Amino acid sequence: MPDFSITGVAVIFLAAILTNNILLSKFLGMCSFIAISRNLRTAFGMGISVTFVTFCTAVLNYGIYYGVLVRDAPLCAVDLTYLTFLVLIMVIAGFVQLVEMVIERFSPLLYYNLGIFLPLITVNCAILGVNLLMIDPDRHFGLVQTAAYALGSGLGWLLSICLMAGLRRRLEHADIPRPLQGLGIILIITGLMAMAFMGFAGVADL
Amino acid sequence: MACSKVSCTRENLIQPVKEGIGPQNPILCQSLGICSALAVTGYVSTTLVMGAALLFVASLSTLSVSLLRNVTPHRVRLIVQMLVISTLVILVHLFLRAWWFDMSKALGPYVGLIITNCLILGRCEGYAMRNGPVMSFLDGLGSAAGYALVLLAISIIREPLGNGTFLGYNVMGQSFLPVRLIGAAPGAFLAMGIVVWVVSAVWPGLHAAEHPEAH
Questions:
Q1: Which of B165, B202, B140 is nearest to B46 (CA)?
Q2: Out of A47, A105, A113, B141, which residue is the most buried by the measure of CB atoms under 10 Å away?
Q3: Which residues of chain B does A36 touch, with a Cβ-Cβ cutoff of 8 Å?
């Protein structure tokens, strides 16, 4: 049963950041993690954008999924769950487009800083991943839990990409064997990071 | 006709498949589609199903995108590609749910995440939008095959070490103690790092010299 108390929500939030980190335990968002973790500034910008979009789309999609798609939903009695993937990805793509237009209109400076990341976010599997995990029937997430889970997941992703960006700056001066350079060493370091994060097991469990 | 520019010889048709497996391998050379490569490789059986699903979705989506390329307005092309890919992924998802429920459970959200596998969108956007249907189909097939082979290599390391089994059969003997770490998340990163390392040590030319900044 979902736990609606403050503690229950806080546990979900912490678990999403530390023990169930979407990148280090569920491998979501690896492509942008590898491509964008070269410098701390851009990594942070990407992390913030991912957190924002994950949070908003998860809440939006929660409403759509339980309001329209499931059987006997308030707005549509027919079972439309077979359309789930299509609807989720279209909402994400549309939302990203909308955010891009709004930011461009009202805050050119922010657009200049985040603009390049926004199109990449649509195909960032972290966002679709969180959206799919939240509707997992075994979890019975309510709206508050979904919001906490999405926010925590985004912050967890932000944390791991920033850690990686810091590590990669050191790597530039390290003497790495030729075949291991690039993808190889990044994967192995991420593995070590995942191992370190396993140390959080038991702090908060989903 | 599809092959109006290039002649339909056997070599020409095999070329894109070879490229996808070898020099243009999506994982090893372009680091695309890594998420599911890590997630499903704990067991050989899930890896095989994922590989088959990817072959199906990648080849048919590049085929459809290529057929639609002349009627797709440039501005909405990404949405069209996403629609094609999601529809095919829904087919895979429903098929697994109906005929192989255990597998559907085991793969969890990663079936749905084929939609955001950058490998497929990359082939649609980078190749199928500019080439004929037959060649695009083969290109998608080749990339997916290269992807599936790397996944298989990782899972062949991970399942026996992490679980003591191969395709569900006990192969390591009774006294073997499974290394749970290899089956868990860190093992996935380490195993894949080692596969990438070995492959680029054996074929130095295969690994892209400079890593691409962004895709």
A1: B165
A2: A47
A3: 214
Query: What is the model's pLDDT at position B58?
Result: 92
By Cβ distance, the residue of A93, A123, A191 closest to B189 is A191
Which helix or strand (DSSP H or E) is residue A189 part of? helix A183-198
> For B8, phi and psi rounded to 5 degrees?
-85, 50
Per-residue pLDDT band for A160 (boundaries 50, 70, 90) equals very high
Q: Which domain holds residue A156?
A: 7-198
Q: Does A31 touch chain B (CB under 8 A)?
A: yes
Query: CB of A87 within 8 Å of any CB in chain B?
Result: no
Which whole-number Å values give the CA distances from A167 to A170, A177, B151, in the listed order?
A: 5, 17, 27
ipTM of the complex: 0.84
**Residue with the two structure tokens 């070329």:** B15
The pLDDT of residue B59 is 93
Q: Find where tokens 């599911």 sit.
A: B36
Q: What is the pLDDT of residue A157?
A: 93
- B32 — contact with chain A (CB < 8 Å)? yes
Question: pLDDT value at position B206?
Answer: 62
Answering whether pTM is above 0.80, one says yes
Q: Give the count of domains, chain A.
A: 1
The C-alpha atoms of residue A69 and residue B94 are separated, in whole angstroms, by 16
Residue A94: C-alpha distances to residues A124, B138, B148 (Å): 14, 31, 31
Go through B83-101 and write b for each residue having 16 or more CB atoms within 10 A of its CB, e for each that does not.
Answer: bbbbbbbbebbeebeeeee
